[in-house]
Amino acid sequence: MENMFRKIVLVSLVCCCVYDFRVFSRCVNSPHFVSPWTEVEAQTQKSSVTLEHECGEFPAKVELQIRPSSGNWTNFYFPGIGSSQRDDDINRTYGGIVYKYNKDEVILFIPKAKDGYPSGTIIYTGGSSWRGPVFQNARRASVRALVWCPSDFPDPTYESNWISLSNSVSGSFLEIAHNQGTIPDLVTVQIQQSGTEWLSDGIGSMTALGPNTSSWGGVIYGYNTSHVRIWAPSSKNGKLFSADDGWGSAKESWSRGLIKIKAWRITNMFTLTYALNQNSKSQISLNTTYNQATDILIVRIKADTGYNSGFMFPASGAVQNDETVSSFGGVVYSASSDTLRIWTPVSPGPGYLLYISNEWGNTLYPQTSTTATLMVHVWKSTTCSIPTTLVPKITKTTPPVQSTADPNSSKRQSSKEDKDSLSSKAPIVVPTVIGGFGLLLLIAGLIIARVLWKRKSKNRVEEEKQEQQ
Ligand SMILES: *[C@@H]1O[C@H](CO)[C@@H](O)[C@H](O)[C@H]1NC(C)=O
Ligand SMILES: *[C@@H]1O[C@H](CO)[C@@H](O)[C@H](O)[C@H]1NC(C)=O
Ligand SMILES: *[C@@H]1O[C@H](CO)[C@@H](O)[C@H](O)[C@H]1NC(C)=O
Ligand SMILES: *[C@@H]1O[C@H](CO)[C@@H](O)[C@H](O)[C@H]1NC(C)=O
Ligand SMILES: *[C@@H]1O[C@H](CO)[C@@H](O)[C@H](O)[C@H]1NC(C)=O
Ligand SMILES: *[C@@H]1O[C@H](CO)[C@@H](O)[C@H](O)[C@H]1NC(C)=O
Segment Disordered: which positions (predicted)? Predict the structure, then answer.
């Protein structure tokens, strides 16, 4: 009996750890892969770079960090972009690095003229239609990729199936319920090219549309407390992903595919919120310091007006228009370890903070925002003590068993109910502490169960004895 009891305890402990981790731990690990800094230059032969991330499965999150190779601002990193919105057809500057990825690699596409103007650079914060703390336009830059495999993230609180999306009348807009009851801390939209293993990422508000004949693309998405809205291009040349014509020799574009939505809630996070309008500051202290090699910066813009009021959209990494031929939109950002910079369209003007034109999503829910709310998250990575997938590591967490003798353990269980208020204050400690509480709870339960069982069997024996008598 003792032996069996011990086995039950051990098995339960392991199960309990896994259960605890799944349910309560919302911490984010360091990325599985951080590439070395790679020098890139626009308008050269080397118009794409391939990096091997070795997840062996589709990553949960891919981030590019792009910084000037020299000059004053090498500590400010710009993100990469999920799809180009411009080609080389007009002699106007555009910038950025576009990327796609599969289970093993990330490919970076760098501006290079194909049959038009060599006007693409890598870092570009816009011309006179844009407002920001400094002006940056750089052909040379350093870039690195950070890749989080699924096991580096907690389990998503919502994950959709693969849903088809295309540039078509009825298939270019989706509204999917995620039913979280609160705005998730992160929502990703991954777009899989039809018939391939290549993924690209959804984007926020677009920054430009060129002339009618130009190549452009992307999948815009936004989300509120219950739903995700997805707009694919629904007019002629728009693709779900484009790195074509002006992005090297690669003929990279796809107009149909499958999308997967995932939503996360996490605890190890720092938040900053402020109103965006034509007078808002373009350089802000993050009020915290983050590690750019391990942590995640998430910059989003919430629509406060219009058809998409209450929906959050991701911010962008580079301006792809200048002296535009149409209305445009977007918020571009870069960040150092403690400061955020943003570039916004000059207002009033042809530019909007959030802009969804009738070229997208079959004209459903268009958006033109001149005011909005900026929301910044810093996810501080931490070493989650109990990875879900590695059983050997789980057994390492058994030492808490020693504390079973603690008579106060039953008291501690009650503080488990405080976990929500606790999590906002001491996010990094919480997963471990809660895990510990869970263990204590389970062990206390087992002890009580054992006592009850013993008592019961004792009673039974006594009953049997009485019956015999
Ligand atoms: C660096 O900053 C200084 C002072 O703000 C300025 O004079 C100089 O032009 C800047 N250099 C570059 C390369 O931007
Ligand atoms: C493109 O525009 C730039 C700046 O306006 C100008 O200097 C250049 O000559 C133009 N290039 C061509 C090929 O027209
Ligand atoms: C683009 O095409 C639409 C009709 O498809 C037309 O109304 C619009 O004026 C065109 N825009 C430009 C810049 O040519
Ligand atoms: C979120 O969007 C859905 C779908 O459009 C809508 O029904 C719901 O009212 C929105 N929620 C809030 C709080 O605005
Ligand atoms: C950052 O902290 C300072 C001092 O505590 C405060 O005055 C400021 O409002 C904070 N900034 C933001 C954007 O929260
Ligand atoms: C149990 O809690 C009480 C009061 O909270 C404290 O005085 C006592 O030292 C604790 N006992 C142990 C064994 O931790």
Answer: 395-422
